[in-house]
């Protein structure tokens, strides 16, 4: 009877195939858990479990994701697998029978002193042959000097104790190698620099309630917080306390959030944390007022509410602005941002100033409604009406004079444009008071021939069509561009960076330069993307047929433009 046999029931079961070369060449030298991981990886693939993730894999084997990742790296060193991607984590299983798969053999005498030193450092357990082999691979593959690796192992043992795992030592060693620290001198310099920051890290960890000793990874974070982000120790401790960050990673997230929101001082951090819930509630209120559904409030808080707070607007004021925006067709945070940019540019920030500004806008709209009704129209007020009113008032006409012009324009094919013509005529004749209309202007209007009135109506219609055609084309081009996901992302990031640049120009010239470079790079990307879409930024601006009057028929002084004179000549 053979040494090993199987039952007939087992012979009929499904199986996972394993190369014989793996069993004869690798299984005797691999760590037990590595064999377990390799076999289970084969099973996952051969069973067609395509939706399996690293988390699923680790959970099934009752190990951590880091352990699984480290052992796949270990298998890669034997060229049994290849790591295709780290995020998402993807592995390709290779054939066992390949030229380079044979485990490397090391001459024991070459590392005799090294092995004695390492065993003297790690006194709590006997170091296995496989573990020593991993250290030899670090020496040869990463170019460590023996004394350099001994110093790293000694540092890790002092930090974690004799029960330290091989994987932690490998992680630290590889981190040093990535920074080019492979000689004893460089390792000593790096550890000395780290030691100098340890007291500060201990104080910070104490404030945060982080129950661990600082290590090299924490030192990297500390340098990021203090050098790259610009926080001092007191600010970091305040952030740890108020954010209740119980791990270095969570503290890093907290400081990154504070950095994005320009909160660096202890007082600013305390106020920010106190107001955080208020900012959240305010963002919800603004969203309700605008009619916006938010699946995740964080981007809206970061890109809008916090920015408006930095501008100096109160929560109540933001809600008031949101109400106005919704009633006037501005039903998104981006539209509200455009309106606030106008207010901020004009220095309208306080609650009272904003209320006065909005009441003024409402008053103007009420007047325009009456004006439109006087013309015999029933439509809503549009942006063109507001622009026209601003222009007429800029010509020094009172609301009473504008109303008189509307009465004369009633019944015309395009009465609002006709008002423009009437007021332009009055301006050229110096008529700015109602009592002068009847004597100088009414007869001219009264005695107009049918042909003259028809000519006037046709001219108004022509310029209205030109204007709307150019504006509609620009609006359509912009909507086409932002409908493209990539360009829309670029456009939104440019808007955000332009706000950051304004703050950076005040606070930090170096940051401002970096942001400007990013803006320049994004604008280039945006132009290239638009080119692929068959567009350019120039398409977003109305391309009026006449650049002097922008297809209104009247120049900046209110006089008939040359293009209008030519059109009238063609009619005649």
Give structural attributes.
single chain, 572 residues, mainly alpha, elongated
Task: Kindly describe this structure.
There is one protein chain. The chain is mostly helical and 572 residues long. The chain contains 27 helices and two strands. The protein has helices at 8-11, 20-26, 32-46, 54-61, 65-77, 112-121, 129-142, 146-160, 166-178, 184-208, 216-228, 233-243, 248-260, 266-290, 298-311, 315-327, 333-345, 351-374, 383-394, 399-409, 415-429, 435-440, 442-446, 450-483, 485-507, 509-532, 562-571, and strands at residues 81-86, 89-93. It has a two-stranded antiparallel sheet with strand order 1-2. Strand 1 (81-86) and strand 2 form a beta hairpin. Helix 8 crosses helix 9 (166-178) and helix 10 packs across helix 11 (216-228). The chain is elongated, with a radius of gyration of 37 Å. The N and C termini lie far apart (117 Å). Residues 439-450 have low confidence and may be disordered.
């Amino acid at each position: 009877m053979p040494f090993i046999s199987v039952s007939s029931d087992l012979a009929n079961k499904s199986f996972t195939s394993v190369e014989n070369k793996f069993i004869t060449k690798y299984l005797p030298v691999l760590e037990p858990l590595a064999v377990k991981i390799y076999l289970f990886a084969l099973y996952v693939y051969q069973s067609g479990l395509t939706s399996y993730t690293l988390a699923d894999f680790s959970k099934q084997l009752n190990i951590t994701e880091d352990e699984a990742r480290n052992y796949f790296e270990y298998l890669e060193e034997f060229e049994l697998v290849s790591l295709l991607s780290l995020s998402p984590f993807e592995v390709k299983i290779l054939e066992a029978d390949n030229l380079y798969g044979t485990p490397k053999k090391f001459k024991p005498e070459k590392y005799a002193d090294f092995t004695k030193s390492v065993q003297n450092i790690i006194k709590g357990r006997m170091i296995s042959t496989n573990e020593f082999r991993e250290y030899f691979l670090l020496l040869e593959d990463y170019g460590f000097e023996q004394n350099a690796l001994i110093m790293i192992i000694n540092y890790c043992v002092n930090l974690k104790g004799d029960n330290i795992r091989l994987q932690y030592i490998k992680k630290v060693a590889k981190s040093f190698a990535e920074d080019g620290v492979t000689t004893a001198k460089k390792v000593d310099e790096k550890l000395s620099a780290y030691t100098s920051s340890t007291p500060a890290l201990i104080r910070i960890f104490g404030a945060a309630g982080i129950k661990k000793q600082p290590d090299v990874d924490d030192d990297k974070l500390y340098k990021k917080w203090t050098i790259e982000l610009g926080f001092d120790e007191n600010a970091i401790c305040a952030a740890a306390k108020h954010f209740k960050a119980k791990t270095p990673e969570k503290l890093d997230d907290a400081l990154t959030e504070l950095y994005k929101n320009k909160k660096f001082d202890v007082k600013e951090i305390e106020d920010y944390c106190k107001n955080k819930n208020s900012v959240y509630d305010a963002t919800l209120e603004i969203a309700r007022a605008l009619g916006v559904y938010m699946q995740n409030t964080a981007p809206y808080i970061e890109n809008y509410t916090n920015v408006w707070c930095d501008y100096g607007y109160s929560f109540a004021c933001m809600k008031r602005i949101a109400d106005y925006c919704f009633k006037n067709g501005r039903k998104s945070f981006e539209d509200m941002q455009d309106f606030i940019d106008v207010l901020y540019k004009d220095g309208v920030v306080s609650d009272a100033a904003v209320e006065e500004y909005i009441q003024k806008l409402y008053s103007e709209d009420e007047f325009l409604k009456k004006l439109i009704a006087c013309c015999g129209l029933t439509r809503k007020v549009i942006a063109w009406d507001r622009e026209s009113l601003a222009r007429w008032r800029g010509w020094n006409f009172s609301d009473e004079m504008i109303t008189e012009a509307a009465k004369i324009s009633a019944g015309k094919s395009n009465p609002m444009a006709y008002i423009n013509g009437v007021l332009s005529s009055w301006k050229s004749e110096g008529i700015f008071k109602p009592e002068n209309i009847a004597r100088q202007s009414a007869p001219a209007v009264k005695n107009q021939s049918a042909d003259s009135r028809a000519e006037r109506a046709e001219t108004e219609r022509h310029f209205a069509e030109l204007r709307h055609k150019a504006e509609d084309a620009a609006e359509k081009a912009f909507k086409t561009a932002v409908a493209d996901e990539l360009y829309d992302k670029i456009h939104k990031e440019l808007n955000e960076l332009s706000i950051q640049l304004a703050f950076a120009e005040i606070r930090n010239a170096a940051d401002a330069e970096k942001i400007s470079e990013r803006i320049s790079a994004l604008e280039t990307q945006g132009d290239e993307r638009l080119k692929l879409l068959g567009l350019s930024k120039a398409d977003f601006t109305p391309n009026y047929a006449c650049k002097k009057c922008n297809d209104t028929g009247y120049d900046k002084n209110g006089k008939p433009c040359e293009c209008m004179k030519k059109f009238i000549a063609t009619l005649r």
